[in-house]
Amino acid sequence: MIKGRSIMANDVKVEIARKAAEVLQKIRADSRLSHYVSTDKIPSVFMQTDDVRDVRLIVIGQDPTVKKETSRTKIETVLNLDKPRGSLYKYVSLICAGLGLDLCQHVYATNYAKNFFVRPPTQIEECSLLDEFGRYWLPLLQEELSLFPDQPILTLGQPLLKTLVIDPRKAMVRWYWRYSPDWEESRKTDFLYVVPEDNKLRRRLFPFPHQPSLRKLFYKATLQSYLGYMKTNMT
């Protein structure tokens, strides 16, 4: 990985793209997994600041595969964060606002699995796809994160959290957000994050639901409170 006191964003993007292409070629040579890969295209990581020292938040998505196959050809950047009118851009911007951050100045976003799959992983039942591909992608993600040793990490979506957390009993986003059947009455605020020893990245993780889950009343009503908790526990 790139070393040095001042590391430029473009250098990081080029290096990650190169290493991701190498990893994908290894997957292509794996006869058991290669048929789950739909294309050699890999979306670019997102970082609009010029210097990695400006990054104050890491956002990790699951993978770039969307359900509609024709839409995949339009994805050039992780989480479509190059599209300000998109729902994920607006969601991550909302999160950043709650943390006192600016998406374009302070965020580095990447995917756990960087390749497109033939179908979204949750629709592939014959194997635990994210775990299987993690043998290839997890080391690169860990290497990426070494550039940002102190920045808090936000994970998007339940399947990704399940993949990263070691104990399956601690793999529910709603558990960290303190959901209970009587949540409307109790309004618990003793929120949690994933401690380093409980996850494969060995870092502090703040789990968030994916954007469509905000349609659920619990997540919609709890979002700002959890953001307040995260803001006070980011360092």
Provide an overview of this structure:
The two termini are about 25 Å apart. The chain has 9 helices and 4 strands, in the order αβαααβαβαααβα. The chain has helices at about 10-30, 70, 85-100, 105, 130-145, 160-165, 175, 185, 215-230; strands at about 55-60, 105-110, 155, 205-210. The chain has one domain: Uracil-DNA glycosylase-like domain (Uracil-DNA Glycosylase, subunit E), CATH 3.40.470. The protein has a 4-stranded parallel β-sheet. The model has no long low-confidence stretch (mean pLDDT about 95). The longest helix is centred in the N-terminal third of the chain and has 20 residues, at about 10-30. α1 runs antiparallel to α5 (about 130-145). The chain has about 240 residues and is of the alpha/beta class.
Protein topology:
Elements lengths: L8 H20 L28 E5 L7 H4 L14 H13 L3 H4 E5 L17 H17 L7 E4 L1 H7 L8 H4 L6 H4 L18 E4 L8 H16 L3
Helix pairs in contact: 1-5
Q: Averaged pLDDT, please?
A: 94
How many structural domains? 1
Give me the Rg, rounded: 17 Å
Name the helicity range. Answer: 25-40%
Summarize the helix and strand pattern as letters.
HEHHHEHEHHHEH
Distance between the termini: 25 Å
The CATH topology is what?
Uracil-DNA Glycosylase, subunit E
The number of E-state strands comes to: 4
Shape field:
globular
In DSSP terms (H or I, runs of 4 or more residues), the helix count works out at 9
CATH architecture: 3-Layer(aba) Sandwich
Query: Strand order of the main beta sheet, please?
Result: 2-1-3-4
Low-confidence stretches: none
Specify the structural class. alpha/beta
